[in-house]
Amino acid sequence: GIPRVITIFSAPNYCDVYNNKAACLKFDNNVLNIKQFIDSPHPYYLPNFMDVFQWSLPFVAEKVTDMLANVLDFDDSDLGPEESADGKEVPAPEPTVIAKRGGLLKKKVLAVTKLLRMYRVLREHNEAIVQLKQLTPSHK
């Protein structure tokens, strides 16, 4: 019938790092075949074997915050007078309402800009820490 396969491993992705072993047992027609695996060069690995999500999160957060800052930072003078659905011009809101909305929008833009700077500094510090860890003998 169908060959039975049993995989035996001890973290095969780290065969080269920790001298772990990996093997595959295959039973077929009362014959036992053992296939052992040796380490192969990694195509690319991040510093300290960091996972991609953890590594890319600061970059993604910085770009999302940057896009949010660009969305919030627009100029109303480019839009011109507003028109309603029936083609009539909508009256402009009172100056006090505009000032309040403008102040609120300015606060939001400043908060997003501050957040963007914070993400950038955190990412730069994280990269510096990773580089310093690579210079130590234990890489910790």
Q: Can you give a write-up of this model?
A:
This protein has two domains: 4-37, no CATH class; 47-135, no CATH class. It is elongated and about 90 Å long. β2 and β3 form a beta hairpin. The two termini are 51 Å apart. The chain contains three helices and three strands, in the order βαββαα. A three-stranded antiparallel sheet has the order 1-2-3, with no helix packed on it. With 140 residues, the chain is of the alpha+beta class. The chain has helices at residues 15-18, 52-72, 95-135, and strands at 4-9, 22-28, 31-37. The model has no long low-confidence stretch (mean pLDDT 74). GO terms for molecular function: calmodulin-dependent protein phosphatase activity. InterPro entries: Metallo-depent_PP-like (IPR029052), PP2B (IPR043360).
User: Percentage of helical residues?
Assistant: 40-55%
Q: Supply the helix-strand structural class.
A: alpha+beta
Strand order of the largest sheet: 1-2-3
Range of strand content = 5-15%
Outline, from the CA principal axes? elongated
The first-to-last residue Cα distance is 51 Å
Q: Report the order of strands and helices.
A: EHEEHH
Total of DSSP H or I helical runs spanning 4+ residues: 3
Poorly predicted ranges (pLDDT <50, ≥5 residues)? none
What profile does the largest beta sheet have?
Answer: 3 strands, antiparallel
Average per-residue pLDDT, rounded, comes to 74
**How large, in whole angstroms, is the Cα Rg?**
29 Å
Total DSSP E strands:
3
> Structurally, how many domains make up the residues?
2
Oligomer: single chain
